């Protein structure tokens, strides 16, 4: 019989064990994200996907905050994060560390996520404001732009949903390359 598992049956890592575990070399940068629920959801996704770190930049709120905690359900404790006033300092740091800098944005040269040949190297994914997206000055610093294919009329998705799709897809591309 197909039975739903209880939380205690899921064999989840403790926060200590998660912090010690090897993560994929993916870092998520949120620039000027307004919604506290989006921020919390991104934390939760990054925990689930084993992301190395989150950077919160500009007006992006920081834990501890009741509304972030509500959607993160503990992920602000497990995922490493740091605040940086400007995303450029983070981008410059990781450019020197030889990370691939990827703006998740629709641009004239963006690559559709499903067509992206991901090599699972050190990666900094940059996500922007819910209305304005990733700013042009950040796009100019990036190696490339990734776009999630869409077929509706809105041509945009919630940032937390987009983060989940992008990180999950990159992790799946890694899995298939290892087989």
How much helical structure, as a percent, in the residues? Answer: 25-40%
CATH architecture: 3-Layer(aba) Sandwich
Cross-sheet strand order for the largest sheet: 3-2-1-6-4-7-5
Distance between the termini: 30 Å
Name of the top-level CATH class: Alpha Beta
Mean pLDDT: 95
Task: List the domain count as a whole number.
Answer: 1
Number of strands: 7
Uncertain spans? none
Q: H/E series, N to C?
A: HEHEHHEHEEEHEH
Q: What characteristic shape results from the CA principal axes?
A: globular
Radius of gyration from the alpha-carbon trace, in angstroms: 16 Å
Largest sheet: 7 strands, parallel
The fraction of residues in strands falls at 15-25%
Helical stretch tally? 7
CATH domain fold name: Alpha/beta knot
Structural class: alpha/beta
What is the H level of CATH, i.e. the homologous superfamily? SPOUT methyltransferase, trefoil knot domain
Explain the overall architecture.
The structure is a single chain. This protein is α/β, with parallel strands linked by helices and 179 residues long. It has a single domain, classed as Alpha/beta knot, CATH 3.40.1280. Helices cover 36% and strands 20% of the residues. It contains seven helices and seven strands. The protein has a seven-stranded parallel beta sheet with strand order 3-2-1-6-4-7-5, with helices on both faces. The model has no long low-confidence stretch (mean pLDDT 95).
């Amino acid at each position: 019989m197909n039975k739903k598992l209880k939380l205690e049956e899921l064999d989840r890592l403790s926060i200590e064990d998660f912090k010690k575990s090897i993560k994929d070399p993916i870092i998520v940068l949120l620039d000027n994200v307004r919604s506290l629920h989006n921020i919390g959801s991104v934390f939760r996704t990054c925990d689930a996907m084993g992301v190395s770190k989150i950077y919160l930049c500009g007006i992006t709120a920081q834990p501890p905050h009741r509304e972030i905690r509500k959607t993160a359900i503990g992920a602000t404790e497990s995922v490493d994060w740091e605040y940086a006033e400007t995303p450029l300092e983070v981008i410059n740091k990781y450019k020197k560390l030889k990370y691939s800098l990827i703006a998740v944005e629709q641009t004239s040269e963006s690559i559709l996520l499903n067509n992206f040949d991901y090599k699972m190297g050190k990666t900094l994914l940059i996500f922007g404001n819910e209305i304005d997206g990733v700013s042009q000055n950040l796009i100019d610093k990036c190696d490339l732009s990734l776009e999630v294919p869409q077929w509706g009329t809105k041509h945009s998705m919630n940032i937390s949903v987009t983060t989940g799709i992008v990180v999950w897809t990159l992790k799946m591309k890694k899995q298939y390359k290892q087989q």
